[in-house]
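To whoever is on call:

I kicked off a structure prediction for a single chain this morning and the downstream step that reads the tokens threw a length-mismatch warning. I double-checked the sequence; it's 160 residues and nothing unusual in it as far as I can see. Pasting both halves so you can look.
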Amino acid sequence: MKCENEITEQTPFIKMFLIVDRLQQRLLSTSTQSQVALVESLTKRQEKSIFVVSRLSRVKPEGVTLTELAERLNMTVPATSVLVESMVQKDLMSRVPSPTDRRAVCIRLSTQGQEIYENCCRQVEHYTRHLVEKLSEEENEYFGRIIRKFYDELFTEEQG
């Protein structure tokens, strides 16, 4: 019986994960066939690396070091290097010389990687806007506060 109570208490989170999965399915259904094939071929770590590189590139437009990316992905530098190489081969990332250390390279999204990332963001915005329109103003504010709390709890250490 205790297990049933735990599942019941977690139901909102399970539903949240199902919502994210459904958004991902809809996102893929509106992408071009070549983008769908490419995105479907990515591992979860590769997907995450695209989002991490994009997010970090906002504050470091020259690119992200392999060490920084490894730390954010919770991977070793050698494993991250292999991951980046696979992304370079798929033309989703590129390596560029570091402007501050000639021995180092920086990692950035390629034009195709940036296009896929931006398309994903636009589509997610479109679908979520449609969902939010179904909420009252009060529900939307309350939901926003809850999501910000979750986000701050999960991502504050990454931004520091």
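Update from on-call: the warning came from a stale cache, not from the record. Cleared it. Sanity check on the structure: The two ends are 42 Å apart (CA to CA).
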